[in-house]
């Protein structure tokens, strides 16, 4: 019975280690492509690239709320220089500097 338990523990511990082993395939997946298959693949690739060139560029805005706005947002007005210079300066404590 102890031998069965020992075998079960070793099997449980060896499982994750076996899963981390790299999968080495020393055999090729299959025979190489024939010249006809290579030519057919090159033709398909060329046709694919030609169809991609025919797709027009999208110039439409991607703003879902664009139709809801009546006019474009207004730019904030520039502050007047005379109003900024006439304001009294304050210190950090909130009292006016004299």
Topology:
Blueprint: H1 2-19, H2 35-54, H3 81-86
Q: What are its keywords?
A:
98 residues, mainly alpha, 3 helices, 45% helix, flat, signal
Question: What are the secondary-structure elements, in order, as H or E?
Answer: HHH
Mean pLDDT over all positions: 77
So how many helices?
Answer: 3
The multimeric state of the shown protein is single chain
Instruction: Characterize the overall form.
Output: flat
Total strands: 0
Our estimate of the beta-strand percent is under 5%
List low-confidence stretches: none
**Estimated helix fraction:** 40-55%
First-residue to last-residue Cα separation: 97 Å
| SS-based class | mainly alpha
- The value of Rg in angstroms is 38 Å
Largest sheet: none
Region (Disordered): 23-98
Signal peptide: 1-19
Keywords: Signal
Biased composition (Low complexity): 77-98
Description of the structure:
It is a single chain. The protein has 98 residues and is an all-alpha fold. The termini are far apart. The mean pLDDT is 77. Keywords: Signal.
Summed up:
The protein is mostly helical. 45% of the residues lie in helices and 0% in strands. The model has no long low-confidence stretch (mean pLDDT 77).
């Amino acid at each position: 019975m102890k031998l069965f338990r020992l075998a079960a523990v070793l099997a449980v511990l060896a499982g994750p280690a076996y899963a981390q082993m790299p999968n080495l395939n020393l055999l090729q997946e299959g025979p190489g492509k024939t010249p006809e298959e290579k030519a057919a693949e090159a033709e398909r690739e060329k046709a694919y690239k030609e169809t991609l060139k025919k797709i027009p560029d999208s110039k439409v805005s991607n703003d879902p709320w664009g139709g809801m706005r009546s006019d474009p947002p207004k730019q904030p007005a520039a502050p007047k220089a005379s109003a900024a210079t006439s304001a009294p300066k304050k210190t950090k404590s909130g009292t006016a500097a004299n």
